[in-house]
Amino acid sequence: MSKPDPRDLLGIRDLLTGEEREIADTVRTFVRKEVAEHAGRWFEDAEFPRHLIGAIGDMGLLGMHLTGYGCAGVNATSYGLACLELEAGDSGLRSFVSVQGSLAMFPIWKYGSEEQKEQWLPGMARGEKIGCFGLTEPDRGSDPGDMRTTARRDGSDWVLNGAKMWITNGTLADIAVVWARAEEGIRGFLVPTDTPGFTAREIEHKMSLRMSATAELVLEDVRLPESAVLPGVKGLRGPLSCLAEARYGILWGALGAGRACYEAALDYATSREQFGKPIGGFQLTQQKLVQMALELNKGLLLALHLGRRKDSGELPPELVSFGKLNNVRTAIDIARTARTILAANGISLEYPVMRHANNLESVLTYEGTEEIHTLVLGQLLTGQSAYR
Ligand SMILES: Cc1cc2nc3c(=O)[nH]c(=O)nc-3n(C[C@H](O)[C@H](O)[C@H](O)COP(=O)(O)OP(=O)(O)OC[C@H]3O[C@@H](n4cnc5c(N)ncnc54)[C@H](O)[C@@H]3O)c2cc1C
User: Fold this and answer.
1) By residue range, what is the domain housing residue 94?
2) Model confidence at 338: pLDDT above 90
3) I need a surface site. Which of 107, 157, 274, 381 has the fewest CB within 10 A?
4) Same domain membership, residue 262 and residue 171
5) Which residue's CA is the nearest one to ligand 1's atom 17?
6) Where does the Acyl-CoA dehydrogenase/oxidase N-terminal domain lie (predicted)?
C-alpha cells in the first residue's frame, strides 16, 4: 500500500473520471505556465490579463457546462475542477470565467430567444465577446429584490435607467446582462455596451481581487428594442438562478486558492529553518499544517459530493449555500494560517498567500455573503425566515 500524498491526502484524484482528470490537469498546467509567475504583478498593477482570454476560450472553459452553441457541454464536476485550478492561480481569473459562463452566458442559454443564443453564445464561448452581469446596485446588495434600476416601455422599445455597482468584467464587456424593474416585475436585458447612455467606470483602489476588472455601470435613458429582453423569465428567480450556477463554481474555486496557500506553507515549512531545523519540525507548525490539510480535504470531498449531486440533477440551492459557506470559510482560514507560517514573507507579493487571502475576502462577500447563506440554511433547518 503506498503512502498518502500530502498534496492529495485522501486520493480524491482517484475518485475522478478520466475526462475530469484530464480537464483538471490541462487547466493546472495552463495556470502554472501562464499565470503563476505573473499573478503577483497583475495583482499589484490591477491589471486583468486580457491576452489569456483567447487561450481560455480555446480550452473550452467559457460556458463549459452549457450544451450547444459552441459550448463544451462537460459535466458539473469538470466545471468545478476547472474553477478550482483557475483559482489556484488567482480568484480574479476564476471570477472572469464564472461571470462569463455562469452569469452572462447561462441566462442567455437558459432564458434567451433562439436569436439571442445564436447571436451571442458562440462568440462568448470562444472568448471573442465578453459578458458581465449587473444585479447589485450602489444601495442594494443582499436585497436585490428591492432594486431601483427601472425598465420602462416606450412604444415597442424599452428605456432603462439606474446604476449597477461592483460589476465583474464590467469594463471588459461587449454585452451586459442587466436586471431591471419593469411594471410586470424584474426582467433581464441584454445591453450591448456601446448602446448610447450606457457607461462602465472602473472601480479603483480595491485591496482584493485586484486582477479582476470591477466596474460601476450607469444607465441613462438606455433605449433598447423589444428583442433585448430575455423572454424566458420574469421575477427575481431569473438572477437568483444564475447566482446559484456561479456559486456552485465558487464552492470549488475557493478551495483552489486554499490549496495554493496550503502548498506554499508546506513548501516553506520544509525549507525555512529557525533554531537549527526546518520550521515544519516544530509541533505548532505541524498542527497548523495538519489542520489545513484536514479542512482542505473535507472541503474537497464536499465539493465532489455536491458536484456528483448536480450531475445527477439533484442539487437544491440550499446545498449550494452549504458548499459556498463552508468552502470559502475553509479557504480563508487556510490562507490566514498559511500567512502565519510564512510570517514576514507571508505578507509579500513574492509569495501567493496574502494575495489569495485578500482575494478571498471578496469571494466571501459576493454571490451571497456569509451571513445570507447562513440565513438560507437557518431557514431550511427551522422553517423560519430571519431575513426581515
Ligand atoms: C469584487 C466584487 C465583485 C462583484 N461582482 C459582482 C457582479 O459581477 N455582479 C453583481 O451584480 N454583483 C457583484 N458584486 C456584488 C456582491 O454580490 C455584493 O457585494 C453582495 O451581494 C453584498 O452586497 P453589499 O456589498 O451591498 O452588502 P450589503 O447587502 O449592504 O450587506 C452589508 C452587511 O449586512 C449583512 N446583511 C445584509 N442583509 C442582512 C440580513 N437580512 N441579515 C443579516 N445580515 C445581513 C451582509 O451579510 C453584510 O455583512 C461583487 C462584489 C465584489 C466585492
Assistant:
1) 12-126
2) yes
3) 381
4) no
5) 366
6) 18-128
The reply to whether 223 falls in a domain is yes
Rounded Cα–Cα distance for residues 126 and 237 (Å): 28
Query: Is 117 in the same domain as 151?
Result: no
DSSP 8-state assignment for residue 207: S
Question: Beta-carbon neighbour count of residue 379 at 10 Å?
Answer: 15
**Tens digit of pLDDT for each residue in 198-231?**
999 999 999 999 999 999 999 999 999 999 999 9
**Domain membership flag for residue 364:** yes
Q: Which of 199, 228, 257 is the last residue of a domain?
A: 228
Q: Is the pTM of this model over 0.90?
A: yes
pLDDT tens figures, 29-83: 999 999 999 999 999 999 999 999 999 999 999 999 999 999 999 999 999 999 9
Look up residue 4 and give its DSSP letter. Answer: P
Radius of gyration in angstroms for the set of CA atoms belonging to the chain, rounded to a whole number: 21
Q: Are residues 83 and 113 in the same domain?
A: yes
Does 219 share its domain with 341? Answer: no
Residue of 95, 96, 365 best suited for mutating to test ligand 1, as the one with most atoms within 8 Å of CB: 365
DSSP class of residue 5 equals B
Expressed in angstroms and rounded, the spacing between residue 183 Cα and the centre of ligand 1 is 25
Residue 224, Cβ density class (10 Å: 0-12 exposed, 13-18 middle, ≥19 buried): buried
Together in a domain, 173 and 266: no
User: Do 142 and 99 share a domain, yes or no?
Assistant: no
CA of 141 to the centre of ligand 1 (A): 4
Give the residues across from 133 on adjacent strands: 177
141 lines ligand 1 (CB under 6 A): yes
- Active-site residue (options: 19, 44, 367, 370): 367
> Is 387 part of a structural domain of the chain?
no
367 catalytic per annotation: yes
